[in-house]
Amino acid sequence: MPVGFLTAEQRRNYGRYAGPPTAEELARFFHLNDTDLAFIAPRRGHHNCLGLAVQLTTVRFLGTFLEDPLAVPEVVLHCLARQLDIADPNGLEAYRTGEQRWDHAAEIRARYGYRDFTDPDAGFRLTRWLYGMCWTGTERPSVLFERATDWLLSYKVLLPGASVLERFVARVRRRVEERLWRLLGQGITAEQKVQLDQLLTVPPGSRTSQLDQLRSGPVKVSGPSLVHALQRVKTVRELGLATPVAAALPPSRLALLARFAASAKVSVIKRLPPARRLATLVAFVQSLEATAQDDALEILEILLRDLFSDAVKADRKARLRTLKDLDRAALTLAETCALLLDEAVPDSELRSRMLTRTSREALENALNQVHALTRPPNDVYFRELDDHYRSVRRYLPALLKHLQFGASPSGAPVAAALDWLRVNANRTKPPNDAPREVISKAWKSHVLGEGDRVNLRAYTFCVLDELRSALRRRDVFATPSWRYADPRAGLLAGAEWEATRPIICRTLGLASDPQPVLATLSEELDRTYRQVAARLPETRRYGSKPRMTRSI
Predict the structure, then answer these.
(1) Please, which pLDDT band fits residue 241 given cuts at 50, 70 and 90?
(2) Between 246 and 97, whose confidence is greater?
(3) pLDDT tens by residue, 201-221
(4) Alpha-carbon span 478 to 484, nearest angstrom
(5) pLDDT tens across 455-466, in order?
(6) What gap in Å lies between CA 440 and CA 445, rounded to an integer?
(7) SS3 275
(8) Cβ–Cβ contacts within 10 Å for residue 132, how many?
């Protein structure tokens, strides 16, 4: 990794005033408390008092002593002079050129506990902290440099030269990368190494390497593209390069190496050092299954969305074409049924009067048209969906074969229905033991026929409809995956959560025991409810909306 990663602006502003401090910074770093004033008071002469105050607040703000101790913004001089009751902050040339400034710097270091960067304890603690940052994150070297600078300021370690800290960050980052490469290569056998190297070669009769073929995802949304994406998932699994060490690595580091392998040219990867090349290919293969499954699921989600939205559009078009027929049939029935509300017509003559007004054949036609053209509430538009069953059958077998879904308790019926379809989707007469929990009220009339038998086509669309909703809610998930993973996988539980809870609660400013907080919120909710309920009659009288004293 190149050592010279700092920009010219970063080098210029390192350990220097980049501009006048803000009002908040003046209040935080340049305020002289009682301890500071007691430390400054014994000095002889205003120039010594002000010079000592400048050096003290400068090292507190910048983390270093300046070569020219008075090279500070005017606002700093006036702020400190006002606190020291010095009317004229000028006349400090004697302090700039005198020897007293060096004695003051030594006294500040001794009094306030500032240490050099070469201090063994400070170096060890910074190395351990920065190593953890590099191991768990993927920040750029320049960002790590800024974080290290902030750490040195927080722990009162005087800033070294910019190039010294720059080389330090580069050295720690290099150690992290070498450890990552070593761990990724530990579980790889000689046979697997040969397989990985073959990913970089171009097979006879082909123009691209196998690596290029594997990292080329689908480019359009269609049934054949979904089948191709599912075949890609199968190919990745057949490589058989899953290594147990990958589970212990930070996902961010693994993803960073995989992104490099997915975008870099094959010739560039070939020129990498052996350890880094092997680690890069292992990370790529480890992440490729998750990426391939995500690509396939994304296509599936779009296909199902388009399938059901197209069914809605087709139904609307059909209803618009038949709207006149529906109106005609409805008017016929309305005119005939009006006799039911006519009290002047005796009950004994009602049937004959109705058939006299409208013939039996006309009534039957009107009833048939109303039944055919109306839709129940929350209709699933199965008639329009059934026209696309053949297109669904093109990718459904591959979907059920190559994708295994996990589920939360609320998504378990969908996963069970998919397992049943995996076994029975290709049978001419499947058994009537399909899981019924997945069948919603809107689908029940289409799925369950005579004798409570399941209509396989309707059941298939019902399961796909529920799968679309479950994927969106993450009630159904895939493993491994980046976008469709189990949202509960990263949650802490058991002893691990009990050990971490005090730290998290302290960070969020919450108590470890939730009962007092819940009791306070309950009392506030009850009090607010009673206030609103007490004003409700008056509110109704004047017709205005009740006003909450506080949002809850």
Answers:
(1) low
(2) 97
(3) 888 888 888 888 888 888 888
(4) 6
(5) 999 999 999 999
(6) 10
(7) helix
(8) 11
Query: CB of 168 within 8 A of CB of 151?
Result: no
| pLDDT band per the 50, 70, 90 thresholds, residue 351 | confident
Angle at which helices 251-263 and 162-186 cross, to 10°:
90
Stated pTM of the model: 0.64
Backbone angles phi, psi at 322, to 5 degrees: -105, 10
* CA torsion angle 501 503 507 508 (round to 10): 10
Q: Could you give the count of Cα atoms lying within 13 Å of 535 in the half-sphere of its Cβ?
A: 14
CA distance 454 to 142: 63
Only one residue has tokens 């105050």, namely 53
Is there a contact between 197 and 277 (Cβ–Cβ < 8 Å)? Answer: no
N- to C-terminal Cα distance for the chain?
53
Are residues 312 and 475 in contact, defined by beta-carbon separation less than 8 angstroms? no
If you ran DSSP here, which 8-state letter would residue 479 be given? Answer: S
Asked if residue 480 has a cis previous peptide bond (ω within 30° of 0), the answer is yes
| H or E stretch covering 278 | helix 274-321
pLDDT over 70, % of the chain: 95
Q: What is the DSSP letter of 19?
A: S
Share of residues in the chain with pLDDT > 90 (%): 25
| Tally of CB atoms within 10 A around 182 | 13
Query: What residue spans define the domains of the chain?
Result: 8-112, 120-186, 404-478, 496-542
SS3 category, 448:
strand
Angle, CA of 479, 482 and 483, to the nearest 5°: 100
Burial of 257-276, coded b for 16+ CB within 10 Å and e otherwise, reads bbebbbeeebeebeebeeeb
Backbone angles phi, psi at 36, to 5 degrees: -65, -45
